[in-house]
Amino acid sequence: MSTTNVVEIEGMKCEGCVANVTRELSALASVESVQVSLEKNNATVTSASEIDKEQLSSAVQKAGFKVK
């Protein structure tokens, strides 16, 4: 059963930012898909199992951004 999390992100300004966030979130274990929206300032992460919110936050921070 897949689970979906929406992460609100601060600081993204361009498609390069979107690519960085997508790369870091996609690298997490069990992630099936990542859709990052520059317009909505968020990322929708679908995974095979539940992902801890701290893992999501850490991945966003590693990409250089803050979670709202």
UniProtKB/TrEMBL annotation:
Keywords of the record: Metal-binding
InterPro entries listed in its UniProt record: Heavy-metal-associated_CS, HMA_dom, HMA_dom_sf
HMA domain residues: 3-68
One example GO MF annotation: metal ion binding
Entry-linked Pfam families: HMA
Entry-linked Gene3D superfamilies: 3.30.70.100
Keyword Calcium: no
Protein name (database record): Heavy-metal-associated domain-containing protein
